Amino acid sequence: MTHFSITTDKFKGPIELLLELVEARKMHISDVSLSEVADKFIAYIESLPELPVADTANFVYVASVLLLIKSKALLPRLELTEDEQSSIGELEQRLAIFKLLKEQMPVIAETYGSSPIYEAQESTNYTIVFAPTPGLTLGNIEIAIKDVFARVPKEEKLQEGTVRKVVSLEEMIGRLHERVTQNFKMSFKSFSNLGKSEKVEVVVSFLAMLELVKRGAISVQQHAHFTDIEMETLSTGIPVYN
Fold first, then answer.
1. Domain ranges, residue 75
2. CA 172/CA 203 separation, integer angstroms
3. Cα 196 from chain centroid (whole Å)
4. Domain count, the chain
5. DSSP codes of every residue in 81-108
6. Cα–Cα dist 2/16, whole Å
7. Cα–Cα distance, 94 to 57 (Å, whole number)
8. Same domain assignment for residues 201 and 104
9. Given CA atoms 203, 206, 212, 216 in this order, what sign does their dihedral have?
10. Domain end: 112, 127, 160, which one?
11. Distance from CA of residue 200 to its chain's centroid?
12. Exposed site from 32, 64, 81, 232, fewest CB < 10 Å?
């Protein structure tokens, strides 16, 4: 029980007794001014040199129960939302737990208050002993160590290479069309530098020649198998000589 007591027009005594009378229906909750009770408790704790933790916790519990009872008495038919109903249920559960702990406080104090608990002291009188299993041998340890090192990820070095720029087909088509237009005629071998250029450039040159034939920009002629191909422009105009 706390040391806080209140005096009103219809009650005088500790606040716990006020709650007991209300719960036992020996006193109506409407006869209690909760704001007056709160003001007197605030005046009580302000008169003390430090905050009374036990008295404050007890007052919060009693005031919460009284507030809950008064809310239900003033608004008995008020429809609550799920969240509001959940909040009230949670408050009732917490108050019930607090009431149970409060009732058990004398038992706890009687059981543990007279028997202090001492921390165990670490003992320094011990010897570290390594006791391996019978199957542990130097050979097994060596195999295990080698297995660990074998599982360590190895650094992989990628093969270095030089990336060379390859002329695009569109670029080769433009180059071939310009050369043939300037010279009216020219051989495929002279344009592609067959035998001197990279194979990929020769292939791109050949594809460019076929594309220009397809577009009707040039005509080609080969007199025999595996001989050079002669290319001739089909565009009319004045040739440009460099």
1. 5-112
2. 10
3. 60
4. 2
5. PHHHHHHHHHHHHHHHHHHHHHHHHHHH
6. 8
7. 13
8. no
9. negative
10. 112
11. 51
12. 81
The reply to whether 65 falls in a domain is yes
Q: Look up residue 30 and give its DSSP letter.
A: G
- Has residue 239 been placed in a domain? no
- Its sign, for the CA torsion 91, 97, 103, 106, is negative
pLDDT by position in tens, the chain (length 242) = 457 777 877 788 887 787 788 778 787 777 778 888 888 888 888 888 888 777 788 778 778 877 777 777 776 665 656 665 565 567 667 767 777 777 777 777 777 766 556 666 666 676 767 777 878 888 888 888 999 888 888 777 777 766 666 678 888 888 888 888 888 888 888 888 776 767 888 888 888 888 888 888 888 888 888 888 888 888 655 444 44
Give SS3 for 63.
helix
